[in-house]
Each structure stands twice: as C-alpha cells, then as structure tokens.
Amino acid sequence: MRSYLHFLANCQSLELLWDKHCAKMNDYGFDRLIYGFTRYRSGTSLGDPEDFIILTNHSKEYTDVFLDEGGYHQAPMVRWALENEGACSWGILGQMADGSALSDGERKVYDFNQKMNVTAGYTISFKSVSARSKGAIALTAKPGLGQDDVDQIWEEHGRDIHLINNIAHLKILTLPYQHPGRALTKRQREALQWVGDGKTMQDIAVLMGLTSATVEKHLRLAREALAVETTAQAVLKAAFANQMFILEA
Known about the structure:
The protein has helices at residues 2-10, 14-27, 60-68, 76-83, 91-98, 104-115, 147-172, 186-196, 201-208, 212-226, 231-240, and strands at 30-38, 53-56, 86-89, 121-125, 134-141. 52% of the residues lie in helices and 12% in strands. With 249 residues, it is of the alpha+beta class. It has two domains: 2-172, Transcription factor LuxR-like, autoinducer-binding domain (Beta-Lactamase), CATH 3.30.450.80; 180-240, Orthogonal Bundle (Arc Repressor Mutant, subunit A). β4 (121-125) and β5 form a beta hairpin. The two termini are 28 Å apart. α1 (2-10) runs parallel beside α7 (147-172), α2 (14-27) packs antiparallel against α7 (147-172) and α9 crosses α10.
C-alpha cells in the first residue's frame, strides 16, 4: 500500500493513474469503476456533462446507457452520493427496492444494473471542496461476488480502500484533463496564459510575435472550444481543468 501511495503522489499522467488505480481496485475484488467529478454543480443541475471529469473501465454497452443516455441522473447511488459524504454499501439498494423506496426512474436504472451484473459494490462520495463541486466513485464487484462478500471485503480492507480512493481523487484534481470536445491548441492555451498574467492584447501580440487580430482569433477559438462567452470565463475554466501553465512532456 505504501508503494501505491508513493505512485499516486508522484504520478503525472491521468491515463497512467487511472490504469493503475483500476488494477489496484481489482486486487480488492472491484473490477469495474466509474469516477465522476464536476465543478459546475448548482441547485438544479450538475452542469454540462462535457465539463465533467469522467473516468471508467465499464463496457461501452454499459456506458452508452448509464453515461451517454443520462441514466446516472436517476441512479439511486448517485442520489446518495450527492446528499452524503463517505462510503456506502450497495446493500441499501436491496432495502430500497424491497421497500418500494425507488422512483420509477430509479427503478429503471436499478433493473438495468441488475441486467448488466452491476449488482454488488460500494460508492464513495468525496468531501466537497466548494458548494459547486462534487466527486464520487462507484466500485463494482467482480461477477460472482454478492453484496455479503463485498461487505466482508470492506470489513477487512475498507479503511485502506477508502484512503486510497480519497488520495487518488485529490491527485486527479491536480492533473491536466481535457474533454475531447473541449481541446485547446497550444497557441490558444498560450494566449489564455498571458491573459491570466494580466497582459493587454497589445502586450500579448508582442510576446507571441503575432498581430492583435490573430491573438483575438486564438482567444475567440478558445472561448468557443470551452463553450464560454468571455475570455475571463475561458481562463477560469482552463484553470479548473489544469490546462493553464502546464509542463510540456
């Protein structure tokens, strides 16, 4: 465990971190994971899905429904994660289902999960760093393991699993993440960085060796890529995704 925590502390690649984390959780009996984080939560929304950080090793058949078609909106354990912090056994799902505590939408997601053998596991809801942010991870047990088996695993290793996931979550928040639909070019990022440093358009043109019109074009394209209206919003959103002042490989 110490070796893995050292890896988490020093890892500089989100892709490598996720691959290793999936393998580590598999060692504990959890072979399918979904991690999600948003900084754009409001009273009525989690924000634009394209701004989420989503990491998963579930099959495309599963993610097409649960993620792309918005099944997570009605997922009972997502509701739990939004209302709580800490770790929770999926054993409560059976109690909710038996007690008719699930809405029609939640029942639909519950039945879909049963069909896809997403039946036993734990959800960890991370401590929020602001009122607008929320992160959680769902750990699905390997096929053949029942919830009683998983609860026994948690009884023995739960404190370590919880700690590892908390540290992985905190590390993820420090690493550059870019949704494929929100990618910035090197020039767009550089222009935003100079804006973040408080430089004027004329200053940036000199520093980048471009005309002011070309600088404005890069900033306009950056705003479009990030789906914001102002350059200040673009700087903030790029900073949230750790895309500002990043070290080139």
